[in-house]
Fold this sequence. Notes:
Layout: H1 3-13, H2 16-23, E1 33-39, E2 43-49, E3 54-60, H3 70-79, E4 87-88, E5 97-99, E6 102-108, H4 120-136, H5 149-159, H6 165-182, H7 185-188, E7 192-195, E8 205-207, E9 210-213, E10 221-224, H8 225-236, H9 246-259, H10 264-288, H11 305-317
Antiparallel strand pairs: 1-2, 2-3, 3-6, 4-6, 5-6, 7-10, 8-9
Helix pairs in contact: 4-8, 4-9, 5-6, 5-10, 6-10, 6-11, 8-10, 10-11
Amino acid sequence: xxxxxxxxxxxxxxxxxxxxxxxxxxxxxxxxxxxxxxxxxxxxxxxxxxxxxxxxxxxxxxxxxxxxxxxxxxxxxxxxxxxxxxxxxxxxxxxxxxxxxxxxxxxxxxxxxxxxxxxxxxxxxxxxxxxxxxxxxxxxxxxxxxxxxxxxxxxxxxxxxxxxxxxxxxxxxxxxxxxxxxxxxxxxxxxxxxxxxxxxxxxxxxxxxxxxxxxxxxxxxxxxxxxxxxxxxxxxxxxxxxxxxxxxxxxxxxxxxxxxxxxxxxxxxxxxxxxxxxxxxxxxxxxxxxxxxxxxxxxxxxxxxxxxxxxxxxxxxxxxxxxxxxxxxx
Length: 330
């Protein structure tokens, strides 16, 4: 979907008059500027200006409520010095409002731009951010993310009938390998905590000084930290043809490890968790576009099913190997 198509779709969801009505419920000033920002499967965003400050008005498209962990999670990140947005309460003191039975909230606008072809330095910055995020929320207990083998089986059963036989075999074999991995006792004992769940390129901003913000935490939950790392590596270090960039991968993982040391078991199982992460996202896109449009989906980053099919195939045929000696720990 092109930029103008995104703006057209987003505009049909909320016009300037409606945005002003919603924004009037906040003590943040009068609206002087309004512009659709983006529309995705999860959220639709609008830029709001009051002349001196800029905000983002977000409508949740899918979830019934604002992620309950979002407010305390952002507070922990702010305390740790991470560049994250600020949520604003309305006059009733609630951080979530409503518009035509759709949840809505307002946050500060973060400055910067998304990158499509990240440099090695930008990959390293992402690794450092994730490690600091995990450390900042290491003691917080939140609801688990329902991404497990039951979830994979349920989603796969919805799309097997629409898939080419070779793709169905690839999916079935990959899920089987993931299931075997997750049954292992040493895997079940891997470090866990709050995970971002979607630290894609489309969810990170950069300016001339480096990483300037991570605005979206709607998919945060509780899970394996190495799974969170695998999600990021699949998006930041593998191109749209399913080709892995070893230098980018090493930069991201090394930067992460320098802040939160990975265990030996996390090194061993990272390649399988990269397959796990790719399969879960491939399935999400297949479920959304089961017939006639395998490359459907909008947004930046590796956001369509065909690209993730290639990544799953890459992990199945040439698993990524990382020798922990390459990290050169002091």
